[in-house]
Amino acid sequence: MNTFPDNSSEITTALSEKGLGNQPWWVEQWMELINSYRFKKRLERAWSYAREGNVTSIRFEGRRVHARVQGTDEEPYKVKLWLDVLNDEDWSYVLEALTQKARWSAQLLTGIMPSDIERAFAASGKRLFPFKLQEVRSECNCPDKANPCKHISAIYFLMGDRFSEDPFVLFQLRGRTRTKLLTDLAEQRKKILKKIAQDSAEKDDDLTESSAITQTTSSIHSSITNPHLWWSYEASLNADLVVITPALDGDTGLNAAGELPLAENPKFPQANNKFLSHLQQQGQIFAQEAMLKAMSADE
Amino acid sequence: MSLLHATWLPPIRTPTCSGRPALLVWADTWRVATPTGPKITPALHPFTLNPEELSTWLKQKELLPEGIIEATACLTLPSRYIKAPSTKNAYKKQSDELHEEINDFAWTGLPLQAGEPIPKQCEWWPWQVQGLAIEPSAATTWLSKLPLSGNNSDLGEEIRWWSHFQRWSLSLIARGRWIPQVEVSKGEGYPHRARWVPLLNREDDRQKLEEFAARLPLVATCALPWREPTGRRNNRMTRLRPEAMREANPIASCRPRSGRIRVATLLEDLVDAQLRKGFVPNTKDLDPLLTIWQEALGSENGVITLNEEDVERLATASNHWKEGVAGNVAPARTCLELFTPNQGEDLWELRFALQAAADPTLKVQAASVWGAGSQGLQIGEIHVDQPSEVLLEGLGRALTVFEPIARGLENATPENMQLTPAEAFVLVRTAASQLRDVGVGVELPPSLSGGLASRLGLAIKAEILETSRGFTLGESLNWEWELMIGGVHLTLKELERLASKKSPLVNHQGAWIELRPNDLKNAALFCSTTPNLSLDDALRLTATEGDTLMKLPIHRFEAGPRLQGVLEKYHQQKAPDPLPAPEGFNGQLRPYQERGLGWLAFLHRFDQGACLADDMGLGKTIQLLAFLQHLKSEHELKRPVLLIAPTSVLTNWKREANAFTPTLQIFEHYGPKRPSTEKELKKVLKHINLVITSYGLLQRDIELLESINWEGIVIDEAQAIKNPNAKQSQATREIARPDKNNRFRIALTGTPVENRVGELWSLMDFLNPRVLGKEDFFQQRYRLPIERYGDISSLKDLKARVSPFILRRLKTDKTIISDLPEKIELNEWIGLSKEQKSLYNKTVEDTIDLIASSPLGQRQGKVLGLLTRLKQICNHPALALKENIVQEGFINRSVKLQRLEEILEEVIEAGDRALLFTQFAEWGHLLQAYLQQRWLCEVPFLHGSTSKNERQAMVDRFQEDPRGPQLFLLSLKAGGIGLNLTRANHVFHIDRWWNPAVENQATDRAYRIGQTNRVMVHKFITSGSVEEKIDQMIREKSRLAEDIIGSGEDWLSNLGVNQLKNLVALETS
């Protein structure tokens, strides 16, 4: 991908060890948006602001981003960012479109942003991602008349990282939190499914048979009918637990989880990695201790 | 006896304290208690040890945990309704007080203890339980040290659940299956917290969660938090204002619920406690957010103090981080089912479904999920509220590891999709296990499911040669074989053809099979060098699953009718053919004894050692004697057989052999006059069939005994050789080595040998040394995994290996019961120790003349005195010498005590209960002290000076206490009448009384209405002593006996000196 031409290598390495190529697609898309901006000098200054830790806070409050950037003034400047919110009617189109493809719901439920999500938004004639940087509305209380000023641009840079913490932030900026979106999706799906259920009930009787198993039976806990269960346990140790073994190389939960999706504080460039490698190292000690404990059982 | 329990206490959070969970250990014990019920607060559990008693007891058992405080919790326990003692007085008082009135109708009862019989109407009530609370990390350390297998009589069964559960947490930690999280406060007053959370995405871990949840003993999680209204830490039971208590602890019971979530939470608590304790933060170069998170991960309570936005940010990010690995614990999961292509088609079908996590066979197809409607979906016993969400989430996860699925998710309600052969192969080979690890079930067609059946193997048909009787292990069998994979046969040619297709999934005769790289090579090698199949191989291949022949697993083994007969008998799938009592056997065999005889003869034919491990009282001696007689009548008893037994039973053997097999010539190699040179011994052994000796003498005379060419070696009470390194054990195994002229080996024991893994090696090394291999191998392969970890698969394998050689029938077996009477009388004939013998003789010598010369009036008393003293000597010299403490070496001084101990060992092992009667109170006291030392348990003794209340308490406890004493000593006079002790199924008459009616009355304490088991009556008779004479009189019902018994003890004074001598003199047999 293209970062802006002047100083590309420096910036990519500073942003992340892996380079931008390994970022989730929505972060890439965000960076592309920034790179399309014409005033490169201003971007460069904004970049060093961001990198040197002048941005003291970024908070997502409802549909707006509130941030503070330490500029030349004593008090940090207050920056606000927001996108055009989709109205309920727009959202109803989006939701309807989203339920048309099981994959979209499936991915959103797993915390993954579908790469073709814009197609669902196209149904409403709107977009999830801003198409041009101009669509990102912003305000800064600095004396600079230009918009975006370097303070705002500094926030742009850091926003990309914040998206990777939680992709649903974008939905939030468009007017739906994750919870709300998932509930709305479920509601929408219910409507569709209800229709399907009715249709198929008319079509054949097969389903009535299978709905026999769907009848709720109020189940009594088995220990009520057999109070011995309050005390009894007759199983022997699960065969897997006889010998406690360590993880194969690189097969721990931390390895599987990968990078910590927490936007890095530019003042502490290696913090995430240090945090992770310390956990890894402690994990090995934990594992050794656990195996020692397991070996000395019942001695 | 007390029983320890453990219950998890959820954290109590107060504004000042974030609260930590704790493990409450408490113990119940047998007590007499008045029924009571909850009033303002739950009633105090009347059977629990108070914290002080509990610590003392735990210390004594070396189980005292660290990090404890005294604690009280409110536990919900199954309880028995019992009407309160009459409260008529309350009516008389005409009290207006409300609670008095309530009292009259209120629920009263007692909590049930583990193991107590469950009453018809069982209720669940809260009880205040006192115990010790262990802080979580100390609790995990404590749990890690508890036994993982076996029955420890001090620990409740649920404690083993805990120790297994803790072991799982260790396994998760060892495998690094955890991730740190940030939890946002659950509401006002709750802090934000940093937590360590286990990752349960892997298939095997999720299965374990289901197992642990399904088997959760509810006592482990039956606590409701118990609050001290003042917020003080409760170190003492304090009396508090009732109103405050009521306010803090409303009376409530906890509802038994599905265990899944609970167990997952418990696991979280255990993992969190351990990692928190071990974590050393290193905050160098970390930004403030990560610094605070890390510090909180290592702090005791995990509290995070940060502003709301930052906490939310951390929580969202950490949750998003975890989501990438594992979803939530849910009762149902998405399942992908793969179906093979239809005939002539290319594409495979993948169907979507929901599956119950607890039982993967319960499935609901996607179509029904989409059509489930608003009331949710029922899968078996579980209810899924939003089935379509669960299905979609699973599909989303599936997509992260198996991309082709995306194609199937293009419409709103997908039910299935098609896969190309290449995609199907990826799914079978690699994606299936990855999918399972992200929590998605995968069902493959049976021929591809990855089990043993899907591998290339053999189908074998075999039969014993027509010319053979099938008696030798090494003999070759007639056999044919075919290659087999995924349930279908194929030839090497076909295999070559399929392999040449270079496609990993191939269709053969309609079945889809997966060929592995080495398949063709292994098959070709087998075809070119087909081995012989011996009877030995057949026995091995049919013993355990998964055995292989030249790297090829055996999928099918078809035995011809004659081989089948041998295999079934060998593996004891079929009862052995009975063999009737041989000619010359003086007695009758019960049907099961005929089968036992048949079994001994069957293994003898194969030259395999046999262990007859029938329950006590089923007649092992008789079966062995019948077997020897059988050999004799078949002319196979050409050389003498050596029988080794504990000294205490030598007398018994001699007597039984004389009675049942009078034609067998017996020689007792025992005593100071025994042959000491090879020449002498050989001379003596001419025409001798059976030589009896003791373990001790075998060891001492091993060189001498080795010089004899034995026909076979028999060991009685085979547990005597359980310790492989003991000298007598080594000597026994040495003399039995089968390579020495085909000696047969038989072991007799009444203990459940197959359950005593540690003792098995030595026994098998005696019987059939090759079966379990060398001792080191055995220790590593079987003993360690089984004894320390309760490894069930090793145990199964071990049992499969040894079971052909062990026959154990129980008194309770249905096939045996019909053959047995309700009451079995067993005479235990015993000898005397050296000390007993000389004391006995000396006493007789010293007294007889004295009596003869004393005036008639004093005679009766003197005679009585003599008889009493002699009976005392038969019991134990210490009794006659009026010693009143049990000194070292106590057991060696009395053969009777040795024998008693051997039998009691079996009784205790079997979990039976026994009454022990003696006529001597002093003996009772000595015996009580000895037995209590020997088994480290309480043995009550009821005798003349026991108070009425104490007697009732002893009887109640013996009858009712679920963990009451197994042994109960009673004096014949005080305990012989009136009592109801039907819980006992053994009665021991340690010494004889003149009158059988008195003995029978005592026996009837156990053998009476209410007795549901067979009763074994053991009578100890010292051979050649006055006890034998008494027994003779009782048995023969001779005129003398009737006279004697009928007229009390008057006859004693009328005995002539010679008669008296006859009665008391020790006969040496």
Structure description:
The complex is a heterodimer of chains A (about 300) and B (about 1050). With about 300 residues, chain A is of the alpha+beta class. Chain A contains 13 helices and 4 strands. In chain A, α2 runs antiparallel to α7 (about 150-165). In chain A, about 40% of the residues are buried. Mean pLDDT of chain A is about 80; it is low at about 1-20 and about 205-220. Chain B has about 1050 residues and is α/β, with parallel strands linked by helices. Chain B folds into 5 domains: about 5-275, no CATH class; about 330-440, no CATH class; about 450-570, no CATH class; about 590-815, Tandem AAA-ATPase domain (Rossmann fold, 3-Layer(aba) Sandwich), CATH 3.40.50.10810; about 825-1065, P-loop containing nucleotide triphosphate hydrolases (Rossmann fold, 3-Layer(aba) Sandwich), CATH 3.40.50. In chain B, the strands form 8 sheets. In chain B, strands 1, 2, 3, 4, 5, 6 and 9 form a 7-stranded mixed β-sheet that branches. In chain B, α6 (about 205-215) packs across α8 and α14 (about 490-500) packs antiparallel against α15 (about 520-530). The interface between A and B is large, with 95 and 117 residues.
For the largest interface, the chains and their residue counts are: A-B, 95 and 117 residues
The secondary-structure class of chain B comes to: alpha/beta
- State the end-to-end CA separation of chain B: 45 Å
The percent of residues in helical segments of chain A reads 40-55%
Biggest β-sheet description of chain B: 7 strands, mixed
Poorly predicted parts of chain B? 89-104, 229-240
| Structure annotation, total helices of chain A | 13
Radius of gyration of chain B, Cα only, in angstroms? 36 Å
**Biggest β-sheet: strands ordered side by side in the sheet of chain A:** 1-2-3-4
Q: How many discrete structural domains of chain A? A: 2
| Helical percentage of chain B | 40-55%
The overall average pLDDT of chain A, rounded, is 79
Largest sheet of chain A: 4 strands, antiparallel
* SSE series of chain A: HHHEEEHHHEHHHHHHH
**CA-atom Rg of chain A in angstroms:** 26 Å
Q: Which band does the percent of strand residues of chain B land in?
A: 15-25%
Number of domains of chain B: 5
Quaternary class: heterodimer
Number of helices of chain B: 40
